[in-house]
Each structure stands twice: as C-alpha cells, then as structure tokens.
Amino acid sequence: MSRIFDHIAPVYSVFDRFIPRPDVETSTSNSEKILDVGGGTGTILQRISDERPDTQVYLLDRSRPMLKHSDRSLHRVQGDASRIPFSDSSFDTILCIDALHHFVDKHRALKELVRVTEPGGSVVIIDLEPKSPLTKIICMVERLLGEPSYFLAPGSLVRFFSEHGWTSEIDGSDFHQFILTAKKSDSG
Ligand SMILES: C[S@@+](CC[C@H](N)C(=O)[O-])C[C@H]1O[C@@H](n2cnc3c(N)ncnc32)[C@H](O)[C@@H]1O
Fold first, then answer.
1. Could you give the strand order of the β-sheet that contains 33-37, starting from the edge strand earlier in sequence?
2. For residue 188, is pLDDT > 90?
3. Best of 28, 62, 101 to mutate for ligand 1, by most ligand atoms within 8 A of CB?
4. Is it the case that residue 132 has pLDDT exceeding 60?
5. Among 3.40.50.300, 3.30.2310.40, 3.40.470.10, 3.40.50.150, what is the CATH number of 4-183?
6. Which atom of ligand 1 is nearest to the CA of 104?
7. What is the pLDDT of residue 1?
8. 184: Cα separation from own chain's centroid
9. Which atom of ligand 1 is nearest to the CA of 16?
10. In terms of pLDDT, which residue wins out, 151 or 188?
11. Residue boundaries of the structural domains of the chain
12. In sequence order, which residues have a C-beta less than 8 Å from that of residue 81 and are 6 or more positions away?
C-alpha cells in the first residue's frame, strides 16, 4: 500500500504553511475539543491552538512521519480514519481537511466521524470539488503516486449525513473546493 506521505513528510512540513487554507478558526471558535482526522503535520490545529490555548486539540494521522513533523504541544495520535481510536461522542468538533479523498475506506471513515462526534457537535470537511478540471488532474497525479484518490461530491456527503439524521450545509464553495459543515442533533 502506498505510503506517499511517509516519504514526503519533511518536504510537506516545509511547504504546507504556504498552502492557502480556508478559515476554520471562525467555524471552530466555540469548540472545546477538536479532532483533526488526516491532520498531517498539524498546521491547522496549531493555528487554532495558538489563538485559543484552552481548546483541546487532537491530531490523528496514519503517517507517523507526518505526525513527527507536527508540534509536540498537540495531542498526536497515529491511527486510521476508518478505525478512530477514541470512544463514541469524544469530540465536539471534527475536522477533515484535504484528507477524505486519501482514505482507502471513505464510507467507513465517515461513519467513524459520526460515531466520535458528541450530540450537538459538528464535522467540517474540506475537499476538492470532483467536477473541477484541476481536481481531475490532481486525482490522476495522486493515483500515479499510488494514492487511492477518489473525490466524493459534496451532494453525496450531504445525503450521507442526512441519512444519519444530521443537518449539513455547504459553505464558501468555489469551483475547486467545498467546505461542508454537518451538525449532529442535540439528541444524538
Ligand atoms: C494532503 S494531507 C492533508 C493534511 C492536513 N489535513 C492538511 O490540510 O495539511 C492528507 C493526510 O491524510 C493522511 N491519511 C491518508 N489516509 C489516512 C487514513 N486512512 N487515516 C488517517 N490519515 C490518513 C495522510 O497521511 C496525510 O497526512
């Protein structure tokens, strides 16, 4: 199985600060306990943690080298998104940024995101819009590198969450990227 991120972790950790990322600080401003699934080198969590040191932030990634390049102040956990090593309802906010399309078992990973979110909590998924020509090129390159890249359409994610009784909205989308925020009901 490809472990491309194990190999590129040192390079990724240098360049990831230059990757333009949507503002998740605002959408997580009320969060107390956040899990970033496929969080890589932890750049986003680090930003949140710097702004609000009281927030508990957990970084989960399959790649040990990626985690090694994250800041030690984060709770770093090596693990697979399709078997998240936390009990049910552990977090009020889950982030999954530019990572879902890399997961081998996307459906199982989505079910895991649902499981570890507490009632009233939310999941924020940011990924590339599958219809964009840029996404198609990225997909081709990533597959050549051995990644299981497949981009789920935002509409199918909305359907998935609605089947679990969640509400969701797609926000800040442009032609290349979408931001989906899904909310679990207060009753779970
Ligand atoms: C493109 S990077 C994105 C990292 C980070 N979210 C960011 O925005 O910088 C994708 C990450 O997903 C991780 N990943 C891939 N498959 C995974 C899985 N099944 N479980 C957990 N992490 C996984 C990779 O190791 C990599 O760090």
1. 75-78, 56-61, 33-37, 91-97, 117-128, 177-183, 167-171
2. no
3. 62
4. yes
5. 3.40.50.150
6. 19
7. 54
8. 17
9. 9
10. 151
11. 4-183
12. 37, 38, 60, 62, 96, 99, 103, 109, 112, 113
Average pLDDT (72-92) is 97
User: Averaged over 155-161, what is the pLDDT?
Assistant: 97
Closest CA to ligand 1's atom 9? 40
Residue 135: is its pLDDT beyond 60?
Answer: yes
Cα angle: 30, vertex 151, 171; to 5 degrees: 35
pLDDT at 76 over 60: yes
- CB-CB contact of 176 with 129 (8 Å): yes
For the question of whether the overall pTM of this predicted structure is more than 0.85, the answer is yes
Whether residue 172 is predicted with pLDDT greater than 80 in this model: the reply is no
Report the alpha-carbon distance of residue 179 to residue 170 in Å, rounded: 6
Residues shown for the chain: 188
Render the burial of 52-70: b for 16+ CB within 10 Å, e for the rest.
beebebbbbbbbebbbebb
